[in-house]
Amino acid sequence: MNMLVARLVQALAVALLVGAATFAMMRSLPGDAAWRIAAGRYGYDNVTAAAADAVHAELGLGGPWLPAFAQWMGDLLRLDFGVSLVSGQPVLQEIAHQLGASLWLALAAVGLSLLIGPPLGILAGLRPGGWLDQSLLLVSTALKAVPQFLMALILILVLSVQWGWLPAAGYGTARHFILPALALGLGLAAVNARIARDAMARIAAMPFYHFARWKGLSRRQVLWRHGLRNVAVPLLTYLGLQFVLLVEGVVVIESIVGWPGIGHALVHAVFSRDVPMVQGTALVLGLGFVLVNALIDLALVRIDPRKAQ
Questions:
Q1: What is the per-residue pLDDT across 188-200, written as a single tens digit (0 to 9) for each?
Q2: Residue 216: C-alpha distances to residues 122, 210, 211 (Å)
Q3: What is 92-307's CATH number?
Q4: What pTM was computed for the model?
Q5: Which of 63, 94, 189, 226 sits in a 20 to 30 Å window from 29, CA-based?
């Protein structure tokens, strides 16, 4: 109960900080916001000074920041995110539409990383110093060193341009998931493999693990009863930290492959000076980080009840 109350307080603090930070950043951006918003509505080739003036008058841009900030925080407390300055649609409706595509992509990337990384890491940790351990160290270091945007470009060149196996961009079928999920998931899998390897090697060297073998349990039984649960604790802990890397990667990867998710929408909202969309999107991402960490805390307590004390 104390943990849930703490997470609730953290969510409130995140909402206030993200709201204030995004408001300050959007207000401090250089250039004419009315021109950018008009360009977002009518296209850069069709925007005119008259259209920009009309947007300026319609939205009352350039007023004092304090009343605008007070109105934004008041709307935030009432869970009223307003409407998009470009599309005119409610911000929550647009975010709900885009969040689904991002969640499916993020789940595919995390699932791929958990499918690849931990099994290889556990096998390497059971035989530290072996060929698999050394090979995994080399490959995981190389994958972790490659930025996600560069990984996406490499995969597009190899899998789409050279071999023609996968579409380079787009959305709608299962084949469209594979390339962006690989770009996001390979780096996460490399880190998961190293964490699982180190945890497994440390646990396998402990006396209780050898005692279980001395009692007559098979290697598989010892691993299942005493190894996997202990390896899961550091893996789940790091999964919460991975959410930050995942959000950063989603923003970049969605823009590269044209994925209609919340990261792609955030980039367009920043370029179009769509302040309500930027504020709403950043707030949803911040609260998502709190929610993911709360769920991981509950899972850790379930695995190791001592965490609740």
A1: 899 999 999 999 9
A2: 21, 10, 9
A3: 1.10.3720.10
A4: 0.77
A5: 94
